[in-house]
Amino acid sequence: MSDLLERLRGRGWRMTAQRRVVAEVLDGEHVHLTADEVHARAVTRLPEISRATVYNTLGELVSLGEVLEVATDKRAKRYDPNAHRPHHHLVCARCGAIRDVHPNGNPLADLPDSERFGFAVSDVEVTYRGVCPDCASA
Amino acid sequence: MSDLLERLRGRGWRMTAQRRVVAEVLDGEHVHLTADEVHARAVTRLPEISRATVYNTLGELVSLGEVLEVATDKRAKRYDPNAHRPHHHLVCARCGAIRDVHPNGNPLADLPDSERFGFAVSDVEVTYRGVCPDCASA
DNA sequence: ATCCTACAATGGACACTGTCTAAGTCAAAT
DNA sequence: ATTTGACTTAGACAGTGTCCATTGTAGGAT
């Protein structure tokens, strides 16, 4: 994710130890942490980082389009660093595990004009639910 | 929605003034209230109804399959009484207005086995986002 | 190398959403 | 009318997120 740090610096983002740590924590595939989980992991690397800073930084990353907010469970928002390849989510109904998925077709095209109520529809978010292999065998 | 009350009574649901009021508040099409909005409206009809009762009653209606929980915005859960006709949602990105929509096709079929990660996929939820006519003209 | 200053971080208070509990109340079966 | 167990209540509590005044600092200017 050093390319992320590069991109951000190129946009005039002021680099601080806290922001670097947050970006590092978010690195990887199939990462979908809540803000407090990000904070917990960040603290192990930078003990004095505050919760407010993590929230602020996550909010900025979302505004910059580098990270997506995901509302798959109905509790906390989760943050998904995989913002540059469009994808949807598959969530385990029991344990909450989340995988990124790429369905066929284009759901946007499946919403006829008669069902758009005059909206300018620009985006669609698909959440599949099921039971993951671990929970099924338990 | 008196048919709802009938159905519930038929299932041995004990009828109380509070439950009746909650069910009445939820009546209608394109209704997607948060729990506290339901409480606010219920209070106008039954001033002493408590927040806990509204939460309990909504939870029971969800368990009974009479009302759906919807997580379209990332704040509070919303409750959708339109549980008997499957549908998805179209949300205004500015004002949060929500409409029920019925897209073509079956998104479940669009998730190939190779993208299921061994999950037993049982459900899919589609949220379209855009700008509603009111917000577009403002 | 040092200084400045605007931007960032801190931490604690606050707000919102939702859950829980103990005690009181009431619908409905008898 | 009585009884009983389910329902309701009020308020405390927990988790998530926001805000603000203060303090600290990155990075450009000197």
UniProtKB/TrEMBL annotation, chains A, B:
Binding site for Zn(2+): 92, 95, 132, 135
Record-linked InterPro entries: FUR (IPR002481), Fur_C (IPR043135), WH-like_DNA-bd_sf (IPR036388), WH_DNA-bd_sf (IPR036390)
Keyword Transcription applies: yes
A GO MF label: zinc ion binding
Keywords: DNA-binding, Metal-binding, Repressor, Transcription, Transcription regulation, Zinc
GO biological process, one term: regulation of secondary metabolite biosynthetic process
Cofactor: Zn(2+)
Cofactor annotation remark: Binds 1 zinc ion per subunit.
Family: Belongs to the Fur family.
Stated name of the protein: Transcriptional repressor
Organism: Streptomyces shenzhenensis
Taxonomic lineage from the root: Bacteria, Bacillati, Actinomycetota, Actinomycetes, Kitasatosporales
